[in-house]
Design a protein that fits this description.
Blueprint (H helix, E strand, L loop, with lengths): L18 E4 L14 E6 L17 E7 L10 E2 L10 E2 L12 E12 L2 E5 L8 E7 L14 H7 L4
Antiparallel strand pairs: 1-2, 1-8, 2-7, 3-6, 3-8, 4-5, 6-7
């Protein structure tokens, strides 16, 4: 007898973007994000001007966004970036945009704040990307103890930022 419980998602989940990426890259490219500067323009119909109060005290943000230009979905395994030199891994062991819910999470540098406009560097999202949430990066939420990663991901990330 299985002890697994299937989550009832019959009612669905509704998310409302709180902003959009403006500027930065127009084209989708997988590497060299470290010098890309863009703005996150937050929706003033949803957020009050004080929504960013205190954010200036942080150097980095965690940004949750929707891969709005992703046209494929992968639910199984594949070689990351179709590179046969890297092992086949499941979608949950990869940062591919071709996920079931097309959600992305990125840690980027906060360069400046002007009201509800955040200037960021190193956000790996293209112009027009819907922003679902922004949180300050807090080191204490990071991993406790050593981080274990396979060699292929270190190779992949070598030129990512």
């Amino acid at each position: 007898m299985s002890t697994q419980t299937k989550t009832d998602v019959s009612t669905g989940i509704t998310m409302v973007p709180i902003g959009v990426v403006v500027g930065g890259r127009q084209e989708i490219r997988e590497n060299d994000w470290s010098d890309v500067t863009a703005r996150i323009v937050l929706d003033d119909a949803l957020l009050e001007p004080e929504a960013t109060l205190g954010l200036v005290a942080f150097s980095h943000l965690e940004v949750v966004y929707f891969f709005h230009r992703s046209t494929r979905t992968r639910v199984g395994a594949a070689h990351p970036r179709s590179n046969p030199h890297w092992p086949r891994v499941g979608v949950l062991a990869d940062h591919s945009p071709h996920r079931l819910n097309h959600l992305g999470v990125s840690c980027c540098e906060l360069v400046g704040i002007d009201g509800l406009t955040l200037t960021v560097r190193g956000l790996d999202a293209v112009d027009g990307t819907p922003i679902l949430d922004v949180k300050p990066y807090v080191e204490e939420f990071g991993p406790r103890g050593p981080v274990k990663e396979p060699a292929w991901i270190r190779e992949l990330m070598r030129t990512y930022y």
